[in-house]
Amino acid sequence: METTWKERLSGQISPELGREIDIFETQLELRRIGKLDEKIFAETRLRRGVYGQRYDNGRRHDGLRTQQLGFPTGELTKGPETMWDAPGMLRIKLPFGGITPEQMEVLADVADEYSHGVLHVTTRQGFQLHYIHIDDTPELMRRLASVGITTREACGNSVRNVTACPLAGVCEGEAFDVTPYAKALSRFLLGHPDCQDFGRKFKIAFSGCTDEACGLVKMHDFGAVARIRIENGMERRGFALYVGGGLGTVTQQAKLFDEFLPEEELLPTAQAVCRVFSRLGEKRNRARARIKFLVKKLGIEKFRELVLEERKILPQDLLWTSYLKELPAWGEKPLKEGKETSLNTRYDDFNEWLGTNVMSQKQKGYAVAVVTLPLGDLNSFQLRQLAGLARRYVGKNVRTTVEQNMIFRWVSKADLPALYSELEVLGLGESGAASLVDITACPGTDTCKLGIASSRGLAAELGRSLRLVGEDDEAVRRLRIKISGCFNSCGQHHVADIGFFGNSRTVDGFKVPHFQVVLGGQWDNNAGSFGLAIGAVPSKKIPEVVERIIQQFRSNRQQSEPFHSFIERVGKKQLRAWIEDLMRLPTHDVAPDLYTDWGDVREFSLGDLGVGECSGEVISQFQFLLADAEREVFEAQLKHEEGDLLEADSLAYSGMLKAAKALIQQQIKDIGKEPDHVVHEFRTRFYDTELFFDQYAKGKFGRYLLHRYEAGPVGENTEAVHQLIEEAQLFIDATHACSAKMQEQSVLQN
Question: How many angstroms separate the CA atoms of 441 and 434, rounded?
């Protein structure tokens, strides 16, 4: 009789992980026989890393990269709706991105046996497997657990994978190696009882320094930057602690909680923060359930006061400091002796890779080598071969990065030519890491149910076109492009030099894929600033947008002016003027290709539903009002940039009111201009009836208008006005979607 994986792996899985998987397997069976509520099971499987995914959605996956990696190709039909009938996704946690050769081999094996042989590195330094079946997940989890990998709390309302600078421990500019602290906090909070009642997810990051990107601390719920303080002539380790940051639909910079939190206070303070968030954080309204909203509501001073009070009453826990005793012995061990070598005798491709993908470590004779993964993807064969390369060159010193690549640490410089040659054979020798062509993108419409536009398709197109053109301007080469398929910022578009997030517009009855263009984000300084959208451009015109922006930067920057400073100096009015003609869309009969998305042979349209003449007249008026609303929101950005915060607030609010009025006038003609009347009609006709709601965002975009109306002006607070402007743009985008839904309903009813 054939043994099960549970039997074969007996003794290789920690009792705690084994018990958790057993419990999940039981819950899976209870749900299958109808004895566990679907809502409860949904959160259960999410906390085990199991997601539903978009699958047979009618899209054709026929791009070159897609075929190479083994994604399904050919025309697909609409598939099943439930987790029991359709493939899903499994998210895998790798604290601080650390991964061993043994773990790589098991990941490659399960990708072959349970998935489609392709693995995806995420922007949280983890892995995702797609096209898995839920019945296979307990067995798959046991295979991973046998090499110390867990999927627990990789999703759901929980503490997500703890990220850290991938150069921690080898970077010359760091205060100290944050790796053991990230590892300790990850273990401490995993499954912790104080972290089981959150209203939303909770993300943590570590950085070894302030000035570089490192861990992108300032966009996280909880972020720690390494600090050293001299006390009584002795070095003392600690952290600058930040709380309440986040991207998502509305961005917020994290607030400084403590300039210097001693290392022994890191874990108990994190526990206290989690307890306050669990107790006071929003539970019912998921749109405002992240900790950033709680910090904003209370203010950082009050929030700090509550956390410190909570810290005082916490029962003592030996785990808070027990790991500190191990720190003197902590440190990665190189596999081979570090040796310098002459590197100028190799051919041009190697020298190009050497210049973009290799960095010297602070340890003499060693270097870090980046393995570039276009779109964050590699197949199981490649991963298995990377495990072999790791065993030969670096041992266990491999990590993933938030830019969806992998790095080999502690490479003896003498081995770099040989390592490159082997990577090249695997198709993993591309240069350009952390550069213009190394584009970050979320899954978008390929597999994400929330995807609006094809972020991966656009990223692949830009990667090809930009690499073909080449770039000899170092300032341009260093630019970063990041793409999200929707407003949720999974591609981190807010902190990119040039960012995009997917949305759509409806023109003469046709749905058209668009991307909002976001400029002015700052990747450095741990996500030092966030950009704002300057306008929505049809997806197929985005490559021209990139070309124009780069050309303007190349021609008009002042000496060594950084890109974000250039954007700030030029101003959004001029930036929009550079791309405004690209925002205009020709009719479908003139340019039908613009009505499709990248990698999709179908049109994004209402198809054969058609549009009547009466609707056409109303739509024209609707489009006119929406264009005016978008103009006001853009002007609000300009006023915000000029420092006129009161006027920026007024314009953003006025833009929302005009968008609401545009919707209302599709039902009643005479609405008037009074905000009281407009808001009342919007609430009655669209919000209370849930007509304004969509499947995923529900009513949160509608609440942006209602909240501003009820709370009044946000005052002369630059961050609050910045957030209101973002909310106004999202409200307008939701208005477009609501109008399109109304058109569809009207045609079907007739």
Answer: 13
pLDDT at residue 269 is higher than 70: yes
The span from the CA of 170 to the CA of 208, in Å, is 10
Position 541 confidence tier, pLDDT thresholds 50, 70, 90: very high
Q: Is the dihedral of CA 728, 730, 736, 741 positive or negative?
A: negative
Phi then psi for residue 438, to 5 deg, are -90, 80
SS (H, E, C) 115-153: CCCEEEECCCCCEEEEEECHHHHHHHHHHHHCCCCECCC
CA 101, 107, 108, 113 torsion-angle sign: positive
Residue 227 and residue 216: Cα distance in Å, rounded?
A: 16
The arithmetic mean of pLDDT across residues 433-456, rounded, is: 89
Which one, of 609, 584, 603, lies nearest residue 742 by Cα? 609
Strands (E), 349-430: 358-360, 366-371, 377-379, 398-400, 406-412
Mean pLDDT of the chain: 88
Burial class (CB in 10 A: 0-12, 13-18, 19+), 600: buried
With b for 16 or more beta-carbon neighbours within 10 A and e for fewer, the 358-384 pattern comes to bbebeeebbbbbbbbbbbbbbbbebbb
List beta partners, residue 90: 50, 129
In angstroms, the CA 360 to CA 341 distance is 13
Give 33-56 pLDDT, tens digit per residue.
887 788 778 888 988 999 888 654
Beta bridge partners of 366: 412
- Kindly indicate the confidence band of residue 61, based on its pLDDT and cuts at 50, 70 and 90: very low
Instruction: Show the tokens assigned to 47.
Output: 């906390």
Across-strand partners of 223? 205, 242
Task: Judge whether residue 667 has pLDDT over 90.
Answer: no
Confidence band for 616, pLDDT divided at 50, 70 and 90: very low
Which residue(s) pair with 378 in the sheet?
A: 119
> In this structure, are residues 178 and 240 in contact, taking their beta carbons and an 8 Å threshold?
no
Q: How far apart are CA 609 and CA 741, in angstroms?
A: 12
Lookup result for tokens 């039909």? 77
**For 385, which DSSP code?**
H
Place of tokens 């929505």: 536
Domains of the chain from N-terminus onward? 5-98+116-145 (no CATH), 170-329 (3.30.413.10), 348-425 (3.30.70.3340), 435-605 (3.30.413.10), 609-750 (1.20.120.330)
Q: Is 710 helix (H, G, I), strand (E, B) or coil?
A: helix
Q: What pLDDT score was predicted for residue 451?
A: 83
pLDDT, tens digit (0-9, with 9 covering 90-100), for 686-706: 999 989 987 666 778 999 999
523/564 Cα distance (integer angstroms): 9
